Amino acid sequence: MVTKLIGWRIPVSCVPIAPAVVALCLLAGCGEEPIRSYRIAKEQPEEAAPQSTESRQMPPGHPPMGAQQGLPPDHPPVGQVTPGQALPPDHPPIGGAPGPQREAAAAAPALAWDAPPTWIQKPAGGMRVASFDVPGAGDAKGDLSIIVLGGGAGGLLPNVNRWRGQIDAEPWTQEVMDREFQKIQCPAGTILFVDLRKQPPAKRILAGILEREGQSWFFKLVGDDAALEGAKPAFVEFLKTVRGAKP
User: I want to staple 144 with a disulfide (CB 3.0 to 4.6 A). Which of 63, 132, 186, 220 is the partner?
Assistant: First the structure.
């Protein structure tokens, strides 16, 4: 007996194996690979690299990070000031004269004085409350600045040694300073006067310091040694005229 299966003529004796043939065909899948499953680790998000300081956007006109800002001529490097090191004229003591002291100085009772007629008054500016050109020998002249600060303004010895640094002179000890100071009496009180010079003579500083009613007044005359030698008598007489200003 012959049986017909899917268009094929197959002897009856072969019929029992037909299901096996069909199953093999299905498993073969016409030559396709069997389906396999895999476990894949979840991909971790990549961390963003830290942004460098240089790449951060700065406001227009902002200087480069780490660059030193412009400083006045002869200003020492920031953070490298040593005791007695020279600072620009009229520079306040390092670490001294904070905001409250300056405000107190601005509210200090005013002083008055009598300047010689040959002195030329200049506009006050910066920390100066008054300023003069002081003629000396020949055509030489000195520069007089008058400054007031609150409290002790950093102390006498640090200020004197700062001035000595400005003329390249060695700093003083407390004992030397006490010996060199002279006292000048004036209507406003007692002025401590000091003559700072270096050998061989070059630049020179004549200075008077008056502590009055919680304030420190600085009268500082700077110039060449020869110019200040001729101006010294008039400067001392000027200090003797310092007095409280009338309201």
Answer: 132
